[in-house]
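Milestone M4 deliverable, item 7.
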Amino acid sequence: MLVPRAVDGFRTMASALRSLDRSKGVSFYIFSLPEDRCALLLNKNLGRQMPEDVVREEFGTLGM
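Output delivered:
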């Protein structure tokens, strides 16, 4: 198991692994960094009268 200590090292290693020829039996799994993940939010029961910019502003104050 390879665990780089810095984000740049992780990205460099992931790029090198992706460039390997998988037809030669190379297999690996790369975890994604939290800052590279996309967060999807589902808002239910807000009503159509709630302006989208108000919802975005409120999530912004919560750090989302």
